[in-house]
What does this fold into?
Amino acid sequence: MLCLPLVLLFSSWLGAQAPVPGDPPASPPPPLAKADVPIGKAALPMRWGDGELTVFTYRPANWSGQRLLFVMHGVLRNADEYRDHAIGLADRHDLLVAAPKFDAERYPSWRYQRGGILREDGTVAPAAQWTYTAIPELAKALRSATGLPQLKHWVIGHSAGGQFVLRMSAFQDTGAERLVAANPGTVLWPTREFPFGYGFGQLPEALADDARLRAYLAAPLTLYLGTADDQPDEYFDASATAMLQGSGRHQRGVGLFYTARAVATLRGWPFGWRLVEATGVGHDHERMFDHERVGEALFGATAAAPTGTPAAGSTAKEPVK
It folds into this structure.
């Protein structure tokens, strides 16, 4: 269960902002709950599982209270920088940003990129212990903190965070409107021929049967790929199994999309994925977040702001694939 001591945190924050007698009256904030996420940037401690996560937030001053975006960091675990680099995205698309930090000490690759489904020794962990469960629980906590029970949420992750989001789409019902995997280093092939991480092999039948593959292909998933992300770097997985997926991150993502679509078509299954490409962008989350097509990756071709807020977002110059 998630235990979130936000009421005390917010009460102390609000108390610190009390006006001094004689000061001119401050402009009233938007009509949200008393225990609210602060305007601007903040770092909020939140209990999850058997420990605490720091969630770096950004709330635009005129946020309408309709959209929450989780931003998943890469292998450097720099959630604060990912939050900072998503500020322009938040301002354009009316988003409350929440970037949870999964540190490398407690959340090595098997717990972060691969969600903790298989423990380090290869045994299967109970579903309640999967790292992916943090997303729906944090969403619930932030709805409570803002007093907005109908607040909708989206998730975007880049690089290692893209791997997190991609695999999560197959194994966790997050309740998200859309999951965006940006430039994942390796991908989850819709087959039992590859071992888990690269495919569904070596998993128990309940986690790798046709029902699981069908649900994976029906997930509201966007592969958001930089077309210039085709060069290996120090974090690139060049193992023999990974290289079967392609020689670069862009190639791997494109190959996954068209293979997944072909499998869904062949089996007569629903297909919920989108492919959106950021032309000329390499392995750079800041440029991916700033690109004109990021709104399309999250919200569809129109990328419109919620009703009642100023129009914002990107205008697509290329067709959605």
